[in-house]
């Protein structure tokens, strides 16, 4: 029911009104902008409820009265709605386990392979998970770690960089990746490159 | 007299030695054939497996198309392997055993429950009523071809113990009743056949044993001469001397020619079963097996698709013979003969599903790592990246849309050619490919071979090269769209022109790209230098060398669709260069992993610059030259793309991407004549229709710490610098001190903390007012 209403909601309410209301509400609750981002990109139940609240209290504005936002597509004077997929596939906050069940499952299986030293099997599981959630920064980071264990320094560095490009505000993950990159550059015999990442830590 | 005797003896000895030598020669020959062909398996090539997992959007049509293509049949009860059942909110599948690259998955019954249009539960159903919940399950991939370019033959190796007994019974009953007792030939049978042939005055009957037929198959000759027959008989006897009955029977079952699908010869019963029924041999009924045993005698004469009545009669004859031999009982006979020819409607579809363009690409991929002979003979298991659902979409859409374009532009039907590729942006896997407007055409593959100038497709890299100097350029930097003359040593001056022949004054960098202004691009490109632009093009993934002339700025570089895809893939995947690939893994014939083509990346564009170019390419679609592609999309996927048109409308290009797929399309003519199409009126239309039918995700731009959203004032009329309009643009912090922003004094900084990283749409509606672009073009 919640999901269905949510779908209806996203169709009825204009998105920016929703975002704005959501921002206001979440700012009241936690007063940090970081929370706002987390809630927008990963609506757990609380976010869903916030959406509903926002939906109920904001009168619908007809889109024709509104100038199209600069980054939205317009066809025949109508702003195209955003695809209504729940965006579950973004980074998690440090200490929070909010991966989707399938990704959690594949990560656990990758972990088992890592424990057994089956690096290629672990990489295979992580790549399979990445096909499902290609923008999950944690998965890229774990793949970087597998390549590091395999002494594939070059790919370890690149995958860590990819992880960071998607990590958003997940500082823990970003620092982990920097640490890995520093060690990988050391292993490659590039101490000065390593130092640039160590300095960031 | 003794002289004559002596003479005869000499001749006799010579003839005898000659005979011996001949037999020895035949012996070597037939053993080589048998040993070679016993394992002469071309590689097996599979599509990607469809993955089904919890939380996934449930698309029944998609799943059913996949299941049908795999030969699954919908039934009332889940009582047979290779079937599925449907209920209100669940689909249950009795899955076949399959060897994935990461291990064997046995037969299993799996149930997927659906709630709110998403998969919310997956269970393995076991016989003991134990149910195990799992998170993800995959359908087996579809075998779609062999990597055997020379022979155009297909084979699936069958072990004798995997062959249903009724098939063996039927074959022996109808073809060679003495198979287990004769020594390769059946003298009685031959005598009977010879008698008939002498009566008829020509060869009308073979009287061949299965062994002889096998020999005949090896030499792929159907000529029936006495000389041929003689050699065949000797070879059959030799075969029997060297090999057991079981070995010979297994070879026969794998070798025999059973049908022709286009230019592919269907050899062996395993493949024939896939071809005629779309199912493995083990799942066939008695009636189906009897038909296969029957058509064996005359594959084209008894072709069940062309001559259904004849084939049915033949099948019933086989069944009758089996009944007479007490191999089946009366009940089985009655049931089987009551059945129609169960040729599944997918059989005719199964044949041409060989994706020749993609196959060609896979072959190129593998030729770097394997010898041609290994590809032909080692029976490699090749797991590819092809997504048959997207391939189908691409094929159907291109066929339909190309006709529409031809009709609407008054182009002679059938004259346009096309090449296209669809690639996953996260890992560079090719999902679909088309190298000809006829998908089944296996000749010239334009997608990987046709090199054509790309026109404006290279412009983004000119602008990228500029934006990588954030102290000098931002998306808001005014670029003069003014006539320019480029002098080159040894060649006449170059005076490029805009598409509309006009000059547009100072335009913002983002608009110069979005509206594909040639003059602004050349002005900018000459300022940063052709070598810098050329370096950028190489850095993002173009490997062929090209002459670094100023005309590079306007795309005078011949590229294939794959080349274009490679450089755009870098933009589509956050600035990481990712090799395009068609293969995930290769296993040996006994499933030992040989190679895994794992994800490989190289960061070649820093994310903060990449995000700016992506924003500009989204502007191409939102407000620029590719605006027409949006019509027909239900949702805003944040699409980014670029049109390309070459001189005299010879080539029509479009390259563009959503969050998950990059698609590149070229439309043109093989004779390089004008098509009259721009990138927007040709390739972009095909691109849009294809993307509209694909499962897309939105291209979300993740602005890092270095990017802020800034309201930029600009002028309605660039000549007057009235600064009456404003818009928000992502600007790098490093670009903020830029002196050359338009209407600099009116810049308003957005200091809201949450907006520094998040590019939020403008919330306050302005007074209803036609935008600058709409006034000009609206």
Please describe what this structure looks like:
The complex is a heterodimer of chains A (201) and B (778). With 201 residues, chain A is an all-alpha fold. Chain A has helices at 2-12, 15-30, 33-41, 45-57, 101-115, 119-132, 137-149, 153-166, 171-187, 191-200; strands at 74-75, 78-79. In chain A, a hairpin with a 2-residue loop joins strand 1 (74-75) and strand 2. With 778 residues, chain B is of the alpha+beta class. In chain B, 37% of the residues lie in helices and 19% in strands. Chain B has 25 helices and 34 strands. Chains A and B meet through helix 2, helix 3, strand 1, helix 5 and helix 6 of A and strand 28, helix 22, strand 33 and helix 24 of B.
Condensed summary:
The complex is a heterodimer of chains A (201) and B (778). Chain A contains ten helices and two strands.
> What composes the largest sheet of chain A?
2 strands, antiparallel
Could you give the order of strands across the largest sheet of chain A?
A: 1-2
N/C terminus separation of chain B: 116 Å
Which sequence of SSEs, written as H and E, runs from N to C of chain A? Answer: HHHHEEHHHHHH
Label the overall shape of chain A: flat
Sheet with the most strands: spatial strand order of chain B: 3-4-5-8-9-10
Mean pLDDT of chain A: 73
Shape of chain B: elongated
Q: What low-confidence regions of chain B span 5 or more consecutive residues with pLDDT below 50?
A: 745-778
